Iron-containing alcohol dehydrogenase (Thalassobellus suaedae), 386 residues
Amino acid sequence: MNNFEFKNPTKIIFGKNTIEKLENEIPKDAKVLLLYGGGSIKKNGIYDQVKTALANVDVIEFGGIPANPEYAVLMEALKLIKDENITYLLAVGGGSVIDGTKFLSAAALYEGDTPWDILSKNIRTEKGMPFGTVLTLPATGSEMNSGAVITRADTKEKLAMGGPGLFPEFSILDPQVIASIPQRQLANGLTDAFTHVLEQYMTYPIGALLQDRFAESILQTLIEVAPKVLKDPTDHKAASNFMWSCTMALNGLIQKGVPTDWAVHAMGHELTALFGIDHARTLAVIAPSHYKFNFEAKKEKLAQYGERVWNITEGSTDDKAYAAIEKTVAFFHDLGIDTKLSDYTKDYEGTAEEIAKRFTDRGWTGLGEHQSLSPEKVEKIVKMAY
Ligand code: NZQ
Ligand code: ZN
């Protein structure tokens, strides 16, 4: 196992009817900006619950943060934060609203001229404006981590940011919010969380027995609850386990002391930036090709995953590893998620070359757990995913 340090300061408030606890978490003298997305919270009652809980708090609102939070929209919110002397941010939404809020948390205290530099120059945020979240969509783990991904439409970019100053102070996780989530987004959430675990697990053995079993147990739980959540999102047992699995998949715990990959996400983000494909679906497009292309380097963990998660007991290490990739693809298909780029766009020619060029331009010349995935290899993987 590798050496590691672990600190996660986010307070989780989990369970039925916990949104009413909001009031206890926000400082009494705060001037709050409540941030939300396209309006789902106004239809499903979450907005009303939040407003009731904030009855005694000085709060103004900013709605309209789109899926894949857009820089231009966030810059409008940043102006509001400055004009209104906001001191506390509250995200009510999924990964997009929470990530947008993290950008604002960083940008509000940023002293440079151009907040985009936080993303393009990879500036770590040591201290941000304090914020909390009410999670409405289990998927990203953003509610308990310090990362964010921001999109910029005019340059077709999607870049990551983060730093120890960007953990939410608290996150409220009420599994009842799942009841109103459309099937497409439920499938996305399951796929995103599943792939988060794979990115931190599908590398090479390093003797981290507990981390491996944490990871496998999250995968097993997601597989078990997936059909139940899709069939009946009001099934509280399934919803609770789905929600907590998504948070645990990317709150930093399972990646401690182990190598991590994240190349699937790096390539996937480009597919969202270029074609607007839902984040989770880009991962389902890239992951199978990535694992096939890097088969030799990853086959021991692929086989372990096959044995322990999919109960593949027959054959050699290679056989099990290959079967595990096939099982993964079948799982995505069962969720209704397509796994080829051509399923999403007819305009895919040249995509692999474009992504390889972008990575070269950014100096991303060695991704993955061995820092050996060159842009040439990225090009091949993306082509395999057409
Ligand atoms: O905008 P509203 O109206 O709220 O509707 C949203 C949106 O259309 C809807 N929704 C959310 N909760 C709902 C609901 N509809 C009905 N009932 C509810 N309770 O769902 C749609 C998608 O929401 P979004 O927040 O975009 O989804 P998700 O949580 O999957 O977030 C995706 C974003 O997070 C980033 C992705 O790249 C993408 O931009 N990620 C963030 C990560 C992180 N910070 O750690 C890691 C991930 O790998 C990912 O990159
Ligand atoms: Zn993801």
Summary: The two ends are 37 Å apart (CA to CA).
